[in-house]
Design brief:
Layout: E1 2-7, H1 10-26, E2 31-36, H2 38-44, E3 50-51, H3 60-65, H4 67-84, E4 88-92, H5 95-107, E5 111-115, H6 127-134, E6 137-140, H7 145-153, E7 158-159, H8 163-174, H9 178-184, E8 192-196, H10 201-215, E9 222-227, H11 233-236, E10 245-248, H12 251-257, E11 260-264, H13 267-275, E12 279-283, H14 289-298, H15 306-311, E13 318-320, H16 326-335, H17 341-357, H18 362-373
Parallel strand pairs: 1-2, 1-4, 2-3, 4-5, 5-6, 6-7, 8-9, 8-11, 9-10, 11-12, 12-13
Helix pairs in contact: 1-2, 1-18, 4-5, 5-6, 8-13, 10-16
Length: 377
């Protein structure tokens, strides 16, 4: 069978690569074409039609600046689908682009599966109409999502497990010792505060300085920045004190070996929780209180970080927009240091979150559901 997979961001590359591996495990003759990254290329054995580095645009102004490229990407993706002739189009998050691609595939009689549902329960709920119209199989990785789709929209979706559980547990088994990690990156023997400001330039610009100023209040700790793939180290220099340590392409082990972490909201918050490292979630955007009020109106959920959303309660503090200041972040950071009350409370919350996520092999379960679409004509 032939599968065309569409990923538009770095976070989807790993999840999609695991799904591709599961599909090829069940069907060694499976052919795969894709939009995505290097991990998917390794799993599929072919180069991407478009690398996600050409697609990962976020926010109105960034999208507007790159509109010609986005239009070109859509044209190239549609042409690739026509030339490849897949049995199934598999979408991974990235809804603004992927739902348009779904409509195109549906017009051509191609089955459409969605692995990792868009976060329509948080905002832009109107996208459910497009999902109902174009998506034949919706695989959710957050346990509360199927109920949302069923009760609010009478649409059947499946919880397949969360891929981060298996991925993180695999990384934990292979993780190097603390001594080896420090030696590999030339870091001193001091406890670490990990700063994980995101994978996009806009996220780094908005969050890194606040994170650094907050962490600097604890001089007995070594603050270490997680360098994102595709971001030149010189870019971090605009927002850092000279001499600050940066670890590249090793974010998970940095979070794992850190005593605590400051993390920009996203998949990294869940990985940090699964690794068992207490954290403060930071998301400054433009830092204006009006932006926060607008966000409150748009969002339909009480939290933005995955650990809190999954647990249904506050496990990790969320310092958002105008509340993401050095003073407030430092206050929360101090409360989760080893020996402080918030430290053990977070670890207990992480255990509850893991129990809710379960132990299902998400890529394998999703692969079986998606392969089944090809048998339904």
């Amino acid at each position: 069978m032939k599968y065309f997979v569409s990923v538009g961001e770095p976070s989807g590359d790993l999840h999609a690569s695991e799904l591709i591996a599961a599909l090829r495990s069940d069907d060694p003759s499976a052919e795969v074409a894709f939009l995505g990254g290097d991990l998917m290329a390794e799993a599929a054995g072919v180069a991407p039609v478009i690398h996600y580095r050409e697609m990962a645009f976020m926010g109105f102004s960034e999208v507007l600046r790159h509109l010609p490229q986005i239009v070109s990407n859509m044209r190239r993706a549609r042409q690739a689908i026509d030339e490849f002739g897949p049995d199934v189009l598999i979408l991974v998050d990235y809804p603004s682009f992927n739902l348009k691609l779904a409509a195109y595939a549906k017009e051509r009689g191609i089955k459409v599966a969605y692995y990792i549902s868009p976060k329509v329960w948080a905002w832009k709920e109107w996208r459910v109409k497009q999902i109902r119209r174009y998506v034949d199989c919706l695989c959710c990785i957050l346990p509360f999502e199927p109920q949302f789709y069923k009760t609010r929209h009478d649409y059947d979706a499946c919880y397949v497990g969360n891929p981060s559980v298996k991925e993180v547990d695999g990384r934990l088994m292979k993780a190097s010792s603390r001594e080896e990690f420090l030696r590999r990156h030339g870091l001193p023997e001091r406890p670490i505060i990990a700063l994980v400001p995101g994978s996009r330039r806009s996220e780094i610009k908005n969050n890194l300085q606040v994170m650094e100023m907050a962490a600097s209040r604890f001089p007995e700790y070594n603050m270490v920045i997680a360098g994102a793939p595709g971001i030149d180290l010189s870019y971090y220099g605009y927002y850092l004190t000279p001499g600050t340590s940066i670890v590249c392409d090793d974010t998970f082990e940095l979070m794992y070996h850190a005593e605590v972490a400051l993390v920009t909201s996203g998949t990294a918050t869940l990985e940090c929780a699964l690794a068992g490292t207490p954290q403060v979630v930071c998301y400054r955007a433009n830092g204006v209180k009006l932006s926060y009020k607008i966000m409150e109106k748009l969002l339909k959920v009480p939290y933005v970080s995955l650990p809190n959303l999954i647990a249904g309660r506050e496990i990790v503090p969320e310092m958002l927009v105008h509340r993401c200041t050095p003073d407030l972040v430092a206050r929360e950071l101090g409360n989760i240091l080893p020996g402080r009350p918030g430290h053990d409370n977070q670890l207990e919350g992480y255990r509850d979150m893991r129990a809710i996520l379960g132990t299902d092999d998400a890529p394998a379960t999703a692969a079986r559901l998606i392969a089944g679409l090809c048998r339904v004509r």
